[in-house]
Amino acid sequence: MTSQKEIDRRYSNIRAAMEAEKVDALIVCGNQYAGFEGAVRYTSGFEIVHRYVYVLIPLAGDPTLVFPREARWIGDKKASWVREKVWAEIPGKWLREESEKHHWKRVAVYGLDFVMAVRDYRELQQGAFELVPFDFHFDMARAVKSEEELEGFRDSMDIILDGFHALLKAYEPGKSEAEIMAPAVERFFARGAGPRMMNIVLSGSNGEAEAFFKVPSQRKVAADDLLLYSLEVTGADGYWIEFTRALIRGKVSPRTRAMSDVYPHAMECARLKMREGVLASEVHKAAADVFAKAGFALGHLTGHSIGMTMLEHPSIGANTQIELKENMVVSFHPQVVDQEGQVCLYTQDTYRVGKKEGECFANVPWRFYSGAEELKTA
Fold first, then answer.
1. Alpha-helical runs (H) found in 35-112
2. Average pLDDT taken over every residue of the chain
3. CATH 3.40.350.10 placement within the chain
4. Pairing with 377, which of 100, 243, 334, 351 sits 20 to 30 Å away (CA)?
5. Distance between CA atoms of residues 304 and 215, nearest Å
């Protein structure tokens, strides 16, 4: 249950960002797509089960939850702390009329590019007001996490490590990728993740993983197959955590071994940069320089802020000139690829930005796991 103090903190930070950008109201978008539902829960306490929802937050006054009419019977409306609720035939039309009724001139939208339903955007763009993209401003307003939120992250990490234990126990050559993953997913669901998970894999043969993500399949795993399960889930409170470690029973290839020789050092260099006042680009550079010196490039996004939404600003990239602040939480996951871009090595860890260095939420050493390990994860 989110405390009133935490609710007040969130709204105060959001409205400060609204005032700074001179907007009269904010529309927060969320939908069922994994990782895109969290902003609605963050601002209302409502958990999206199906379809999509908006939260309308005026600069002054009470917020409103706006549902499409067909979603009336979907989701526990009593769980929300937002009292005003509307079920509209076309939510965008209701939002447009409400904005015009109040004579708002600038209406901000979180989720304008990737989340908002097209039918609603069509209605809103006809309004006599300016639509202001607000993803970056909203994310920066929620980037520094409270102690209450950090407890949510720690619970999510406990769940994901429980699932990783189950995955290790299930790992056995001859099983399929999906069979190995299944016990982890069972633990995630049993402990409150619900549908909020995205569990994918990088895999390949002869001690190497192909450099593209896929859904764990019915493909039978051989002893020399390298498996990099990307575990991404939330706990019951809705905070996303990401975690990966490498699995192989046989031998890794010389290329993979060369990548692994520098990987832990690169991750540690990045962790030490995750401190108050450091630019996000410096975290990226700390790891990228280690890999480049060894002759490797980077593929997938290096990292990003994370919270109730899977991908939040700021990103951890070469061009992100944003100072980190204590208690930001970031997922850091450099994908190291060979010069041809064919094979890779990958891990994910989630960190709290500290005063002097980053705190990794998982106490799980980086190495190749065979499935026989007894992990110490306290």
1. 38-44, 91-101
2. 95
3. 4-141
4. 334
5. 22
When computed from its CA atoms, the radius of gyration of the chain, rounded to whole angstroms, is 22
Q: Is the pLDDT of residue 307 over 50?
A: yes
Tokens linked to 72: 């009336």
Distance CA 50, CA 74 (A): 7
- Cis bond before residue 314 (omega within 30° of 0): yes
The DSSP-derived string for 252-277 is --HHHHHHHHHHHHHHHHHHHH-BTT
Assigned token pair, 332: 């850091």
Beta strands in the chain (DSSP E): 25-31, 52-58, 64-68, 84-88, 106-110, 130-133, 200-204, 209-210, 226-234, 240-243, 246-247, 297-298, 303-305, 312-316, 329-332, 335-337, 343-346, 349-352, 359-360, 368-369
Q: Which residues of 109-145 are buried (b: 16+ CB within 10 A; e: fewer)?
A: bbbbeebbbeebbebbeebebebbebbebbbbbbbbb
- Assigned token pair, 151: 């407890």
CATH 3.90.230.10 placement within the chain: 147-369
| Average pLDDT over every residue of 170-181 | 97
Are 263 and 189 in contact by the 8 Å Cβ rule? The answer is no
**In which band, very low, low, confident or very high, does the pLDDT at 374 lie, cut at 50, 70 and 90?**
low
Threshold 0.85, pTM exceeds: yes
- How big, in percent rounded to 5, are the helix, strand and coil portions of the chain? 35, 25, 40
Q: Which CATH superfamily is domain 147-369 in?
A: Creatinase/methionine aminopeptidase superfamily (3.90.230.10)
What does the pLDDT average to over 314-323? 96
